[in-house]
Specification:
Blueprint: H1 4-13, E1 21-25, E2 31-33, H2 47-55, E3 59-63, H3 69-76, E4 80-85, H4 88-97, E5 102-104, E6 115-120, H5 134-143, E7 145-156, E8 181-188, E9 191-192, E10 196-199, H6 203-212, E11 215-222, E12 227-234
Parallel strand pairs: 3-4, 3-6, 4-5, 6-7
Antiparallel strand pairs: 1-2, 1-8, 7-12, 8-9, 8-10, 11-12
Helix pairs in contact: 1-4
Length: 236
């Protein structure tokens, strides 16, 4: 399988930065992911990310670790952190940057341990793909938690991307699909990857899904633009 994301990370890490990753989605025509941002230090991270890192405790699983920024920060704080990503290139970069414990796997295929903190940032809940898979996703995360463990995740309510009428209501296309379900495709150096589903969850929908699966869900902080950081734990 083509590893566009991993190739871009490897190029940047090796000093071969010539272009960013282009993204195409069902929401807008074209955008980009600046590669320097994927190597940001703690002081360049959004406040929600900084807060999430400060809340990490015990044994940590960094899901969708990318270039390893979060894992390196936590490792420097002497936490026991495992960095997980399905991208072979991302894991190679993590190792080269000094991340001590890495796993190349999708989160749903991973059963390699249990953790005090599971960490899913940069809209990590999006890995669920679609709303009808959220129960399976949450229950798998639950199976990886130690007693009194926590899941820290951020997401965005993308309702703002839809047209608003004079009464303040939003024009959302008809159909059964939840408005936060998006299809993405990445392109780098003329190579396009396969389209993949991604999920943006408004907080109420996330909270309802957690309640339905015997999990607590609370807001830690709201961000500056319809985004939020949430803490999820298992109900006792």
């Amino acid at each position: 399988m083509m590893d566009i994301f991993g190739q871009a990370l490897q190029d940047y890490h090796a000093g071969n930065y010539t272009e960013d990753i282009k993204t195409y989605s069902s929401l807008d025509e074209e955008d980009s992911i600046p590669l320097p941002y994927l190597f940001r230090s703690f002081d360049k991270m959004p406040l929600l990310e900084q807060k999430a890192l400060e809340l990490c405790k015990g044994r940590v699983l960094d899901v969708g670790c990318g270039a390893g920024n979060h894992a390196l920060y936590l490792q420097n704080k002497e936490l026991d952190v495992t960095a997980l990503d399905r991208s072979k290139g991302a894991i190679a970069v993590c190792r080269d940057r000094g991340v001590q414990s890495t796993v190349q796997s999708s989160i749903l295929d991973y059963e390699g341990g249990r953790f005090d903190t599971i960490f899913l940032l940069m809209n990590g809940i999006g890995l669920a793909g679609t709303l009808d898979k959220i129960d399976v996703f949450l229950n798998h995360l639950k199976s990886l938690l130690l007693p009194n463990g926590q899941i820290l995740l951020d997401s965005s309510d993308i309702i703002y991307m839809f047209e608003q009428d004079d009464d303040g209501g939003y024009w959302i296309p008809d159909g059964d699909q939840y408005y936060g379900e998006v299809t993405f495709q990445m392109e780098y150096k003329g190579q396009k990857g396969l389209p993949f589903p991604w999920l943006y969850l408004d907080f109420n929908t996330l909270q309802n899904a957690c309640n339905a699966n015997n999990m607590n869900c609370e807001i830690v902080n709201y961000g500056e633009h319809f985004d939020y950081l949430a803490k999820v734990s298992v109900k006792k």
